[in-house]
Amino acid sequence: MVAAPYISDLTSTTPEVDLTFQLPDPEDEQISDYEFQQQIEAAWQVCDRFDLQTDIWRGRILKTVRDREKRVGNAGGAGFLRWLADREISKSHAYNLMELADSADLLLQEGLLEPQDVSQFSKRAFIETAQAAPEVQQMVSEAAHRGDRITRREVRQLADEWTAVTSDLLPVEVKEKAADHTLPTRYLAPLVREMEKLPEAHQVHLRDEVAENPDIDTVKQVTAEARFLAKYLNAATQVQTLNRDGLDLESALEEAMRIGCLNSTADLVNQAAQLEQAIAKLYTTWRRIVSLSERVYLDSGSSTPNLRSLLAYLTPLSGEILELQLGDPASGTSRRIRLKVMAEEEGDPAGDWE
Fold first, then answer.
1. Residue 290 and residue 288: Cα distance in Å, rounded?
2. Is 0.90 surpassed by the pTM of this model?
3. Hey, which residues does 353 pair with through a beta bridge?
């Protein structure tokens, strides 16, 4: 495996740190707030550094165990899961550690970082760097090599700046304002991410809108529009009720944008998609309850009066008319909901609803 040399490199090039560092006395009034915070920050960075390196090592160990289990052909990875259970490690935590180890291998193998530079990162910053564009990785690695402390915020700031400079989805007017720092890049990256989800025709419309007024308020507004557009387009393809001839979804979208109700329209379509999914799940669950009720009825008899009573009480959920009481009847605000399942036609397993 390639991971072992990097474990050796990290241990051999990382300077020794005294784990018995002295924390400032919180009761000592002779220490200024600034000095107190500096000492606390220094101690915290020591913990951060050892946390990061230890988790990288743990991630590599987990990868080694997992790969061994794959090699010996353990069915379904059960051996690896047992190994995790024996050490009280959750599956999600294990895969987070392995992701961290993968990030370390990527950055070290490509020569972007020296092993001693790892100590400059927080854990989240390290993963964020591994997922960033190569140009951003280069800038971050140069800062780490200079000895700068790298946090997730710094990585995201560099990534936002790079996006603002290079993205073709942003008009020249916006890029110029980003370059002279009159338009903060932290507002532009979310806009680009939302616009990337849209077809080109919508991208052009939004880009023109931002170019006309390249200011923070417009960027925020267009970002929201792009988000609602993406939600509308994604949900519309999932709603079977809308997949019929005669409906022009794009024209409906344009009209919603023109009268200023894009948000409500997008939410309406999204709710419709959820309702269809709920109906399908409800019908499938109802069919299962009917089947199980019939099976229990046939298996029971006069010797099981309580079991028959259970079936009787479940009748409102297993008959053709489904009933549910919403709210507390004593409060006077309750409501009874009834749904009727129409008798199925022969050869039609779906049935009808009323």
1. 5
2. no
3. 341
Q: What CA–CA distance (Å, rounded) separates 84 from 63?
A: 12
Q: What is the DSSP string of 187-247?
A: GHHHHHHHHTTS-HHHHHHHHHHHHHS-SHHHHHHHHHHHHHHHHHHHHHTT-GGG-STT-
User: 23: which 2 tokens?
Assistant: 């924390």
Name the percent of the chain in helix, strand, coil, to the closest 5.
70, 5, 25
Query: What tokens does 44 get?
Result: 């915290």
The DSSP-derived string for 131-169 is: TS-HHHHHHHHHHHHTT--B-HHHHHHHHHHHHHHH-TT
In terms of C-beta density within 10 A (0-12 exposed, 13-18 middle, 19 or more buried), how is residue 309 classed? exposed
pLDDT in tens, 175-230: 888 888 888 888 998 999 899 988 888 888 889 999 999 999 999 999 998 998 88
Integer Cα distance of 103 and 201 in angstroms: 37
